[in-house]
């Protein structure tokens, strides 16, 4: 099974394109359109541009990694999965904290709330080897390849020099994670 090419729907959407706001959805004539939700109002007031987009997407990627990795520590019985999850938690927690501080100083706070990720929710229902496969699908090579593209774009094209430097400094860690994720995917595939 090729689990390395699967990406969490929320993670992929966070990296590739912004989702439309619920209040922008078309409604039938005569139906009362709901007002803007509080979350949508917050999003509408957020700064825009490549730096703001990077902070938002990197925050979502980080939260997805943290949630999936915490589940892996709690539920997996595979020592390779647990070791990878521990590394992801340690590194991602550090990177997310640094991003939060930097974003706050720039007026680009990392979103504290995260949309429910259906892939992480589905992972909660899995056990055994199926859990490990699901974890690799969320936190494995494809997720890290996407994260690297996001960070490379900010390091290359970002407007803010400190955010560019943060992204560039994170790339060696993300590349190490990608190598470890590829090894984990092979290990999990071979375990079945």
TrEMBL record:
Protein name: DUF305 domain-containing protein
Pfam families: DUF4142 (PF13628)
Species name: Burkholderia latens
Annotated Gene3D superfamilies: 1.20.1260.10
InterPro entries per record: DUF4142 (IPR025419), Ferritin-like (IPR012347)
Domain DUF4142 residues, every copy: 51-184
């Amino acid at each position: 099974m090729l689990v390395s090419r699967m990406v969490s729907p929320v993670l992929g959407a966070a990296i590739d394109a912004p989702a439309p706001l619920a209040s922008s959805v078309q409604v039938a004539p005569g139906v009362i359109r709901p007002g803007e939700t509080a979350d949508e109002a917050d999003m509408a007031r957020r700064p825009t541009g490549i730096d703001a987009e990077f902070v938002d997407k990197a925050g979502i990627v980080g939260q997805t990694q943290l949630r999936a990795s915490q589940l892996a520590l709690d539920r997996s019985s595979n020592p390779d999965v647990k070791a990878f999850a521990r590394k992801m938690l340690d590194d991602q927690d550090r990177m997310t904290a640094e991003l939060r501080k930097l974003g706050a100083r720039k007026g680009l706070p990392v979103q504290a709330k995260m949309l429910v990720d259906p892939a992480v929710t589905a992972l909660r229902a899995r056990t055994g080897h199926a859990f490990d496969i699901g974890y690799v699908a969320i936190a494995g090579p494809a997720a890290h390849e996407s994260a690297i593209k996001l960070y490379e774009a900010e390091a290359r094209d970002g407007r803010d020099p400190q955010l560019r430097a943060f992204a560039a400094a994170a790339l060696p860690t993300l590349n190490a994670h990608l190598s470890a994720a590829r090894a984990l995917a092979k290990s999990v595939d071979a375990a079945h």
